[in-house]
Write a structure and sequence with these properties.
- The strands form 5 sheets. Strands 7-10-11-12 form a 4-stranded mixed beta sheet.
- The longest helix is centred in the last third of the chain and has 22 residues.
- It is of the alpha+beta class.
- The radius of gyration is 26 Å and the shape is globular.
- The chain has 15 helices and 12 strands.
Length: 352
């Protein structure tokens, strides 16, 4: 290669179509990567990574990325197994067991129900103890007077704070989030990956993707974690439903939500609970409470508690985003500061 000075920071767009770069690889490897990649840019990203792994032939590639007759391909920033083999590998640890029963057992266990409040209280105490902080700092190589417990607490607090607030920590979180397969298939996550997967993150440009990432994690997890989206002061629990289109059991997060669900069920009104994600103007997301099917489709947001000035600003962004979404999709947007007791309340509080 005579005219190409290839470094890890070399931009992929400068490699596309570059003969010197293409000639680094044998035809079989080049054609395989090009054929199995979703885009030309993704293919060249994969080839660039292979070069710095000292893999330039298809034989070397197969030796590194094949198993049981299956061979990995490049997808969304990483080399992955084909879906059929990936599913096989996921289930291999449970073969010969009653997988459905085991799954139910693990769900209960992971929620902490099996361990009980005494276990959680013990772990909380351990993580707050001075012994935990001393061990943590020693493992990180921090040299201080460990007999001075007041100093230990101060240094530990500052150490954790500095790490969590540092640019490098946040950039690393974004990169790991993009490579995380946990959220693949969720529309807002897929859009996020498509937008940022080729962006080289720096201290100047990571702020927007980091804010969007944290918001996305929150709203996605809210759908599956019954402890999110509420506080210990609000009533929460599960209720069986018949007229909800997207759920058989709803995990409600307040008494107002429960009363609204009961009203819809009693009046045999079809609805969805937490139907979809809406992007706000600041790039973050929120999860509306209900989509109600009347003569018009009504997107219903119920809000009874707002925390401080930032909370009110966030509500303004939610309302604006909700109205914009409804106008684009032919819905109506209703914002209630109370539970739903009759349909007139909806018509009196339409905002678009």
């Amino acid at each position: 290669m005579t005219n190409l000075n290839l470094k890890k920071k070399t931009k992929v767009k400068n490699l596309i179509g570059n003969e010197d770069f293409v000639n680094l690889f044998d035809n079989e490897l080049f054609n395989y990567i090009l054929r199995t990649s979703e885009s030309e840019s993704e293919a060249y990203t994969a080839l660039k990574r292979l070069y710095f792994m000292s893999i330039t032939t298809f034989r070397e590639y197969k030796n590194a990325f094949s198993e049981n007759g299956y061979i990995k391909f490049y997808n969304r920033g990483r080399f992955v197994w084909p879906l059929e083999y990936s599913n096989y590998k996921k289930g291999s640890a449970f073969r010969g067991k009653k997988r459905e029963d085991h799954s139910k057992f693990m769900k209960v266990k992971m929620k902490g129900i099996d361990r009980g409040d005494s276990f959680r209280a013990k772990k909380k105490w351990q993580n707050k103890s001075i012994e935990f902080k001393i061990t943590f700092l020693k493992n990180k190589g921090v040299i201080i007077d460990y007999e001075n417990h007041k100093l230990v607490k101060k240094v530990y607090g500052k150490y954790i704070s500095d790490i969590r607030k540092s640019d490098d920590y946040k950039i690393n979180r974004i990169n790991n989030f993009i490579l995380n397969k946990k959220y693949v298939g969720i529309d807002i996550y897929d859009e996020y990956v498509e937008k940022y997967k080729t962006l080289v993150l720096t201290n100047e440009n990571y702020h927007e993707p980091f804010t969007q990432m944290m918001s996305m994690i929150s709203v996605i997890n809210m759908r599956v974690n019954e402890n999110m989206g509420t506080t210990k002061f609000f009533k929460k629990g599960n209720v069986n439903v018949s007229y909800c289109i997207n759920k058989n059991v709803i995990t409600y997060r307040s008494s107002w939500e429960l009363n609204t669900i009961n009203f819809l069920e009693k009046n045999k009104i079809n609805y969805q609970y937490e139907p979809f994600y809406i992007k706000k103007s600041d790039g973050t997301y929120y999860l509306p409470d209900f989509l109600i099917y009347l003569d018009d489709k009504i997107l219903l947001e119920i809000k009874g508690f707002i925390n401080g000035e930032e909370g009110y600003k966030n509500e303004e962004l939610k309302i604006a985003a909700g109205i914009e979404y409804c106008n684009k999709n032919g819905y109506k947007y209703c914002y209630l500061e109370s539970e739903l007791n009759n349909l007139k309340e909806i018509m009196n509080n339409i905002k678009n």
